[in-house]
Automatic annotation (TrEMBL):
Residues 105-156 form the RNA polymerase sigma factor 70 region 4 type domain. NCBIfam families: PRK09636.1 (NF007214), sigma70-ECF (TIGR02937), SigX4 (TIGR02957). Residues 7-69 form the RNA polymerase sigma-70 region domain. The keyword Cytoplasm does not apply. InterPro entries: ECF_Sigma-70_Domain (IPR052704), NTF2-like_dom_sf (IPR032710), RNA_pol_sigma-70_dom (IPR014284), RNA_pol_sigma-70_ECF (IPR014303), RNA_pol_sigma70_r2 (IPR007627), RNA_pol_sigma70_r4_t2 (IPR013249), RNA_pol_sigma_r2 (IPR013325), RNA_pol_sigma_r3/r4-like (IPR013324). It comes from the Bacteria. GO terms for biological process: DNA-templated transcription initiation. The keyword Metal-binding does not apply. Belongs to the sigma-70 factor family. ECF subfamily. This is RNA polymerase subunit sigma-24. Interacts transiently with the RNA polymerase catalytic core formed by RpoA, RpoB, RpoC and RpoZ (2 alpha, 1 beta, 1 beta' and 1 omega subunit) to form the RNA polymerase holoenzyme that can initiate transcription. Pfam families: Sigma70_r2, Sigma70_r4_2.
Amino acid sequence: MTRDEEFEQLRPLLFSIAYRILGSVTEAEDAVQEAWLRYEPSPTQPTSAKAYLSAVVTRISIDVLRSARARRETYVGPWFPEPLLTDTYEDPARSAELADSLSMAALLLLERLSPLERAVFVLRDVFGFGFPEIASAVGRSEAACRQLAVRARRHMDDGRPRFEADRREREELAARFFGAVRDGDVDGLRELLAADVQMLGDGGGKAPAFRKGVIGADNVARFLASNIPLLAKIDARMERREVNGQPGAILRDRNGNVVGTMTLDVCGGQIQTIRSVINPDKLGHVGPVADAWAVAHEVKHARSAGEPE
């Protein structure tokens, strides 16, 4: 196997590591490309290309994350990870676990960790690397990495919901949710939403989004029921998709361009959080990006046209 073929075989794993550390598709792709640029001209062949390249992409991702932290502190409104539609790293034996580590909720919990804790947690708890490999990747002793893993795991466990839904329950609830949204069924939506449900949007100041969110089952149900059905009137649509391993959707304008994505956090038989990514800078990898301001204007016009005089 050539060096190029070996790298391409490992690319899905490298991207999956980088994305979980960075929460950014574009930055993860750049980290993987940088790892190749360092690997390709190297005169020596490592004993394990997997261990070597995983270490390289981890170190690159840690450096990128440290600089990204400063930018995120001045970000306008809530910051969410870039949406990911498909995780290219396939491990059927651990598919459910890998999908859970991709969720918006899990990635936001990872934001609480230091870059080193995050890298150690991803390598150990998500991908099952041994501590000797992790120590080499992050430049710390095995004992230090074990301590980092314990601290990271404690932070993650403290933030996880106590009763997580299984995949079938999530899908059934999501199907009912999107049906009620399509029909503008306020009562049907209320039954599915937790009393303290939050609907939050990441527009980054570049697209219309509620910075403080919409809170409470009644408010969220009424907002969705009064706005989403109007999409049909402007030839826009909500396309059901799995986003970050969760039930979700892509909102498209009449030309099929991407307005935003939506994910649903399901726990205890109810929808706890609805997160939308509308910042156009975070959507280019999903497809051609729409003008969200123009779509919002059309929705507003459609509502006005339908109101009685």
